[in-house]
Amino acid sequence: MTTDTEEPTLTIDELAARAGVTVRTVRFYGTKGLLPPPVLGPRRVGHYGREHLARLALIEELRQQGMTLAGIERYLRQLPPDLSAHDLAVHRAVVASWAPDTVETVTGKELERRAGRPLGAEDVERLVAMGVVRPGDDGYGYEADLGLLRLGVGLLDVPLSQEAIFAARTVLIEHARAAARELSQLFRGEVAERDARDVRSLSAHMHPLVVQALLTAFQRSLKEELGEWLTEPSTEPSGESAPG
């Protein structure tokens, strides 16, 4: 499994192919300051890394959401300058959650392009088991939930059993639905006296804000819980002693 600290190794052609854009697009984003400059190697050949790929994916997600170039520039300026590829992927997931559920029929090649990596037969089987993709009705291609695809692909490299992933998914869905239900009831009380147009406008503005608030609160809570778990003193099993 790769790490964010690896040296940049992608040429501009490879970066564009992995991101599903043209080389011209990569250069355009670079001239606009949306992408950091490449790392110059031997013969002054530029190389790109995982952070470039993740930032490019975030830019494309923002563009697909209908954000203008000026809006994308403002959004990226608000981000810390030293975000890792993982942090950028989290931001992309938040942005993707603003859109309604999108399920598209794609070919195996297109599925790999959307996933941003090659997918073996076992990888596809795990994605099918997660409910992220399913074989097309006509036996050709796949129906992919694009909102979940990146998450599912990320889970392919997580050293957890399939059972643990399913159990975690159940916990998250149950608590997310409970939080959504309570927040919905709270907002309904606030807008009960307003007309339908105001309610739709409020919903459009609140959706990304609530998602970001939930993500931030969950990240902090999870960090605290994991911190407590990792700092707990280890104990030797009863009846056993450490080798001496």
Question: How does this model look, in words?
Answer:
It is a single chain. The protein is built from ten helices and five strands. It has helices spanning 12-19, 23-31, 50-64, 69-77, 85-96, 108-115, 121-130, 146-155, 162-191, 196-231, and strands at 39-40, 46-47, 103-106, 133-135, 142-145. The longest helix is centred in the last third of the chain and has 36 residues, at 196-231. Helix 3 (50-64) packs parallel to helix 5. The two termini are 35 Å apart. The strands form two sheets. The protein has a three-stranded antiparallel β-sheet with strand order 3-5-4. A two-stranded antiparallel sheet has the order 1-2. The chain is mainly α and 244 residues long. The protein has three domains: 1-94, Orthogonal Bundle (Multidrug-efflux Transporter Regulator, Chain: A, Domain 2), CATH 1.10.1660; 100-159, no CATH class; 162-228, no CATH class. The chain is globular, with a radius of gyration of 21 Å.
Offer a quick outline of the entry.
By secondary structure, this protein is mainly alpha-helical. Helices cover 60% and strands 6% of the residues.
In the sheet with the most strands, the strands line up as 3-5-4
* Helix share bin: 55-70%
What's the number of extended β-strand segments? 5
What oligomerization state is this entry in?
A: single chain
Low-confidence stretches: 1-5, 236-244
Q: What is the rounded Rg? A: 21 Å
Q: Indicate the structural class.
A: mainly alpha
- What is the second-level CATH architecture of the largest domain? Orthogonal Bundle
SSE pattern, N- to C-terminal:
HHEEHHHEHHEEHHH
Count of discrete domains? 3
For the record, give the distance between the C-alpha atoms at the N and C termini, rounded to a whole number.
35 Å
Q: What form results from the Cα inertia axes?
A: globular
Task: Tell me the name of the CATH class of the largest domain.
Answer: Mainly Alpha
CATH fold assignment of the largest domain: Multidrug-efflux Transporter Regulator, Chain: A, Domain 2
Major sheet characteristics = 3 strands, antiparallel
Count helical runs. Answer: 10
